[in-house]
Amino acid sequence: MPIQPVLINGQWRTANHSGTFQAANPASGEKLADEYPISTWGDIDEALNASQQAFEALRQAPHEKIAVFLERFADLIEARSAELVELANRETALPSKPRLADVELPRTTGQLRQAAAAARSSGWARPTIDTGLDIRSCLEPIGPVCVFGPNNFPFAFGSASGGDFAAAIAAGNPVIAKANSSHPGTTRIFAEQALAALEESQLPKATVQLLYRTSHEDGERMVADPRVAATGYTGSRGAGLALKAAADQAGKPIYLELSSINPVVILPGALQERGTELVDEFTTSCLMGTGQFCTNPGLVVTLDDDLSRSFASKVAAAFDSAAAGTLLSQGVQHSLAGGVDRLLSLGAERMTEKTACEDASGFRCPNTVLSATGQQFLADADGFQTELFGNASLFLFCEDETQMANVLQALEGNLTGCVYSAKNGVDDETYGRIAPLLRARVGRLLNDKMPTGVAVTAAMNHGGPYPATGHSGFTAVGMPRSIERFATLACYDNVRPDRLPDILRDQCETPGVWRLVDGTWQET
Amino acid sequence: MPIQPVLINGQWRTANHSGTFQAANPASGEKLADEYPISTWGDIDEALNASQQAFEALRQAPHEKIAVFLERFADLIEARSAELVELANRETALPSKPRLADVELPRTTGQLRQAAAAARSSGWARPTIDTGLDIRSCLEPIGPVCVFGPNNFPFAFGSASGGDFAAAIAAGNPVIAKANSSHPGTTRIFAEQALAALEESQLPKATVQLLYRTSHEDGERMVADPRVAATGYTGSRGAGLALKAAADQAGKPIYLELSSINPVVILPGALQERGTELVDEFTTSCLMGTGQFCTNPGLVVTLDDDLSRSFASKVAAAFDSAAAGTLLSQGVQHSLAGGVDRLLSLGAERMTEKTACEDASGFRCPNTVLSATGQQFLADADGFQTELFGNASLFLFCEDETQMANVLQALEGNLTGCVYSAKNGVDDETYGRIAPLLRARVGRLLNDKMPTGVAVTAAMNHGGPYPATGHSGFTAVGMPRSIERFATLACYDNVRPDRLPDILRDQCETPGVWRLVDGTWQET
Question: How many other β-carbons are positioned within 10 Å of the β-carbon of residue B20?
Answer without folding.
Answer: 15
